[in-house]
Write a structure and sequence with these properties.
The chain is mainly β. It has one helix and eight strands.
Length: 174
Amino acid sequence: MNKQKFLIIIIFFSLIYNTYGQDRNWQIGLKGDFIPAGSELNNSYSTLVGVEANYFFKNKDKLRYYGTTGFSTDVDGSGSSITLIDLGVGVYYNLFNIKDRPFYTTLNVGGLYAHEKFSTQLIEGTIQSTFNEFGYTANLGVGYYIFKNINVQLNVNQLNNLGTTLGLSIYYNF
């Protein structure tokens, strides 16, 4: 029983240390993307929402490298749906500080998996179709830390040959 209490205390203090005692290397966020006219995705979708997680390998320099992964889906509900999963690497650069908070830019590239489902109503009945595609994704963003642990970012995303999106993300850093 004493070993279990000791283990719980060690885990508790390591969580406190990881949260408050060192640099904040993890970032999780919510993102929303608008699909402008002219994009292939705009024929079926207008808005994507999702989540994203980033891990910064080095957290003290103006230039930092990070790994990123994300999940997005459409919210239109128009008889078709799309799910996007991405995994990549990126570069963060602190341009300057405003009120001791960084104004920064990011660039990341990586792989993309897209899964689309279509439902078509015919006289004979409904036909379901699916389409899967692997490709690339690229993201350029600018952002600002509105609080010590919370930042917002404007993004331009290229999703393989599916099209370009314009987005807004909000992140929590820990």
